[in-house]
User: Which sequence fits this backbone?
């Protein structure tokens, strides 16, 4: 059974266990937070410092985490649902069994993130950076991936079904991605851009009209 604890109590002790989190933690310094079996509902963590946090068996519903920092954190069996996470920083974070559902992650920094079994469902990931990420068993289902950057990543066999892929960057970071027939054209254009292919159906260099005078 979860015990409800308010902001002042939780800031005094950064070892949160079996806790229903109450309060606004915007801008709070929560580095090295140890959290297990917690529930957050409509809490604000805007700009909060959570670098190095360890969060296990947690659920975040309708929370505000825009601009929060979770660099080099560890997330295990965590679900984010209907959360706003624009510009969140998760560089070099370790993730396992993490699910994002209907979350806004535009401009998120997921560089060098590593782990397995990560699921993005109906999420906005416009401009998100996955450069250098190493992830297995990943799904991007019905997501907006326009301008998302996967350069230098190692993400094999990712499922991209139902997602918008226009403007995807660094597609070489997605090895053997699984797509639907309706996504082939968008993915093909991305691949051609990667390899510098130029499609030109206009003859800009007509044959010269040679006239012989006698």
Assistant:
């Amino acid at each position: 059974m979860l015990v409800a604890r308010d902001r002042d109590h939780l800031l005094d002790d950064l070892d949160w266990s079996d806790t229903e989190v109450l309060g606004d933690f915007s801008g709070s310094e929560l580095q090295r937070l140890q959290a297990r079996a917690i529930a957050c509902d409509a809490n604000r963590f805007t700009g909060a410092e959570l670098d190095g946090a360890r969060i296990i068996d947690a659920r975040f519903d309708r929370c505000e985490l825009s601009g929060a920092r979770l660099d080099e954190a560890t997330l295990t069996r965590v679900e984010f649902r209907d959360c706003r996470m624009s510009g969140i920083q998760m560089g070099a974070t370790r993730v396992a069994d993490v699910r994002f559902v209907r979350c806004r992650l535009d401009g998120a920094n997921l560089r060098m993130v590593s782990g397995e079994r990560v699921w993005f469902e109906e999420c906005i990931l416009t401009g998100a950076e996955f450069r250098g990420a190493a992830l297995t068993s990943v799904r991007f289902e019905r997501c907006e991936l326009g301008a998302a950057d996967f350069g230098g990543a190692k993400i094999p066999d990712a499922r991209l079904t139902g997602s918008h892929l226009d403007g995807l960057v660094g597609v070489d970071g997605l090895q053997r991605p699984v797509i639907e027939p309706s996504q082939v054209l968008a993915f093909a254009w991305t691949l051609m851009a990667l390899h510098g292919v130029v499609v030109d159906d206009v003859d800009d260099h007509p044959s010269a009209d040679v006239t012989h005078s006698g």
